[in-house]
Amino acid sequence: MTDLHAAYRFDTLVVGAANRTAVTAARAVAEAPGSTYNPLFIYSRPGLGKTHLLVAIGHAVRAVHPGAAVAYRTLDEFVEDYHGAVASGAVEAFRQRYAEQHVLLLDDVQLLGRRLEMHEELLRTIDTLQAAGRQVVLTSDRPPAEIESLDERLLRRVAGGLVIDIARPDFETQVAILRRKADERGVPFGSDVLEAVATLGIESVRELIGALNRLIAFQAVSEAPLDPEQARVLIGGPGAVAHADVTREPRPDRGRPGGGAPPAAIDEALAAKPAVVADRDEFGDFLSELASTLAQQVDPWRTRVGEAILRWEGEGFRTTVLDRLLEQEDPPDPDALLVQYEADAERLLEMQREVADLAPDMAGAAALSDPGNMAAAEAYLHRVRESAEPPPGPSPAWRLDELIEGAGNRMALRAAAVVAAEPGTRYNPLVIVGGAGAGKTHLLHGLGNALVATGLPRVACLSAHDFMQELIDAIDRDTVAAWRNRYRRCSALLLDDVHAIAGRERTQEELFLLYNIFAESGRQLAFTSAVPLAELSGVEPRLLTRLEGGLVVELPPPDRDLRLRVAERLLAARGLAEDGELTGYLASRPADSVRSAQGLVQRVLLAADAQQAAPSVQLARDLLEGAARPGRRSAPGRSTSLSSVHGPRSREKMVWHWPDLADCVIEEWR
Amino acid sequence: MSLVNFAAREITCKIVYYGPGRSGKTTNLQYIFGRVPEPRRGRMVSLATHGDRTLFFDFLPLDLGNISGFQTRFQLYTVPGQSYYNATRRLVLQGADGVVFVADSQARRFEENLESLQNLHENLLGQGVDVRQVPVVFQYNKQDLPPELVLDQAALDEALNFRAVPSFGADALHGAGVFETLKGVSELVLRRLAAGGVAAG
């Protein structure tokens, strides 16, 4: 790649009103390539410093980011590179070479107009670099829209960044440029000479330096210091005649210091000057400069608002409020409005940062880019925040150590203990399969609490049904990204009744994505299902196989041993003396789940309380065997009649959900 | 006198050309008059003696049109340079937003420049105005004369311009330096108006 011209740096650039904005933008780009104005498109008439600015960006980037790859190419060089690559069959190498650049500086892109075959390639290069957060800076001698036959897509890319022009330098800037260049060349001139040159209406910096070169060449062969009039005549130019005409009579020799006479060419030129004042529009110039002064002094708010528009547009904000302000002749307090706008814009930046943290892909929302509508922005942020609140955690009511271990559930409990001790490493995912009331939910929440106890932050533990409802809500509120992110930030995901997502394609897709993120980052996943995985239909194979790939443990219906332990624990919890006959009877009663086994014991205890008697085998027998009459629990109005929409429900569950337990006892007693 | 009316978007400035007699004040105005398009200039009022000396004062109203949204008018005045017209000078100076001190570069007129400058200071003080607060620029006129007759700009700066305000060499007869001077004083005046300054008197 072409190396950067050593002299073209920001510190060798003379900054004036004409190029201040462009220089500011260029500096911003150099300080943070790829993140401010991308692409940056600088245009101006030839010779006003585009290339200087372009190369200065390159130098500054290298200074600030020493490891950054910076490429400066003219469009011709870029085209040659490409043609060479095509000829040698190395187009991919060409693309790779440009894709590796952190900053691409492309000069004279107006020449693209004639090279239609390059539009696509340049578009591809810009897209590649932008996608990778790399910076592109382009220069041209005309605005993008005036580049001949420019591809519409390229035009849009360029318009998406910052398009900025460099104007002809004003008088002061021209003098400053001349002074700096003269000093660099070691040939100082009087300020009157340089000012005289600056009044000649020279259009470009390059011509200005050319004019200075002529002065230097003249000065080298002249013993006497050059005076302003000689300078004007020597250089010529639009203003030379007018200025050369300030004396109507032949100019007397003013006795120059050193006594040197000007060369014959100068004398001839002086002699040849016209005797009438040329038509230079002094009054027009005066008005023009006055307008500039007035704009800066009397209406400085317009300048400030203009600068603010440039800045905030570059940041991607809507500036309608400021545009309207500029249209007004005499707004009551423009500065207050500007301050408010900037405060709002700063607040939006804060919001964008917060949203980017909560939900990165929601940070670019239009609602966060319009300081003219803060209410919408606040509402949007509120929605994102709500969606980004931590997901539900495990219920503290369920603990692992409360679970009674029996032969049937031992494997599941041990697996949970191992997962709690080493989350994400041993059994991931852990899938617990069992019928309703088998203790899956208790085990899952118990595991969640155990994980929380180890210090894991943000352990998500909820039912698949609630997970799906949240997703639906997020879709409804257009905050899916925030919803996703709140789960992605969790350190473990525990989902109860995963069979409930059968047939829910979107939920499965989201769960699949989450699953992969968790699995790849070694975060623990655990699921329960009331349906054995092999019998689970309506779940995508890609998700099902992942579940099956973990540890699948079953929670079978409680065996006699477990039922006995349940009865012993519940009776002991009531402070009752150990009654082997009673516990043995209760353990002998059929129960398809731990919950139903507990229910049997609870019913006996409640009946005993109602009779104000100690629980006994006889009481239990009367109650349980007498209560087995069919149809009683399903009497209308007495049961919650839970549907089995979300999976199989046990008979005991219906009893468990009586609205009022006293009603239940009375009913059973009756 | 000065007026910056933000509500009506109007600016009116009074600029007074001050200096010794025959230093070229009226010539400045005449040159400006000649360069301003007719619709933009008012009638130049000038009262002069047979010897072309200003008896009373010159007045040239300029309508600069709409500049940055402001309807801008400049009123250019000259004062009679001769010492016995001090009452008129004081009158004209009243309410001035800016002063151009037109000095005669001829070495032989050096003392008159000094006297006139002192007179300017006295008259401003007499109106309760601190000369340091009024926008003033110097114009060293007749720089086109043979060097042996005139003091150069540096020498005149040294002698007159001790506060280092902007100064301009000029040949008002042919226009050199005339608009530069007007630009210089205008810039100072506008800066001062924008900063909320008040006019002389």
Describe this structure in words.
- The complex is a heterodimer of chains A (about 675) and B (about 200).
- Chain A has about 675 residues and is of the alpha/beta class.
- Chain A has five domains: about 10-165, P-loop containing nucleotide triphosphate hydrolases (Rossmann fold); about 170-285, no CATH class; about 300-390, no CATH class; about 400-555, P-loop containing nucleotide triphosphate hydrolases (Rossmann fold), CATH 3.40.50; about 560-670, no CATH class.
- Chain A is about 50% helix and about 10% strand.
- Chain A contains 29 helices and ten strands.
- In chain A, α26 (about 595-610) packs across α27.
- Chain B has about 200 residues and is α/β, with parallel strands linked by helices.
- Chain B has a single domain (about 5-195), classed as Rossmann fold, CATH 3.40.50.
- Chain B has helices at about 25-35, 85-95, 110-125, 155-160, 180-195; strands at about 5, 10-20, 45-50, 55-65, 70-80, 100-105, 135-140, 165-170.
- In chain B, strands 1, 2, 3, 4, 5, 6, 7 and 8 form an eight-stranded mixed β-sheet that branches.
- At the A-B interface, α13 of A face β4 and α5 of B.
- What is the CATH first-level class name of the largest domain in chain A? Alpha Beta
Total beta strands of chain B? 8
Structural class of chain A: alpha/beta
Shape of chain A: elongated
CATH architecture of the largest domain in chain A: 3-Layer(aba) Sandwich
Assembly state here?
heterodimer
Quick synopsis:
Chain A has 29 helices and 10 strands.
Which characteristics define this entry?
heterodimer, A: 670 residues, alpha/beta, Rossmann fold, five-stranded parallel sheet, 29 helices, 10 strands, B: 201 residues, 30% helix
What are the SSEs and their pairings?
The complex is a heterodimer of chains A (670) and B (201).
Chain A: H1 20-31, E1 40-44, H2 50-64, E2 70-74, H3 75-87, H4 91-99, E3 103-107, H5 116-131, E4 135-140, H6 152-159, E5 162-166, H7 171-185, H8 191-198, H9 205-220, H10 228-235, H11 240-244, H12 264-272, H13 282-297, H14 300-314, H15 320-327, H16 334-358, H17 374-388, H18 410-421, E6 430-434, H19 440-453, E7 459-463, H20 464-476, H21 480-488, E8 492-496, H22 505-520, E9 524-529, H23 541-548, E10 551-555, H24 560-573, H25 580-588, H26 594-611, H27 617-626, H28 651-656, H29 661-669
Parallel strand pairs in A: 1-4, 1-5, 2-3, 3-4, 6-9, 6-10, 7-8, 8-9
Helix pairs in contact in A: 1-2, 3-4, 7-8, 7-9, 8-10, 13-14, 14-15, 14-16, 16-17, 17-21, 18-19, 20-21, 24-25, 24-26, 26-27
Chain B: E1 3-5, E2 10-18, H1 25-35, E3 45-48, E4 54-67, E5 70-78, H2 86-93, E6 98-104, H3 110-126, E7 136-141, H4 153-160, E8 167-169, H5 178-194
Parallel strand pairs in B: 2-5, 2-6, 6-7, 7-8
Antiparallel strand pairs in B: 1-2, 3-4, 4-5
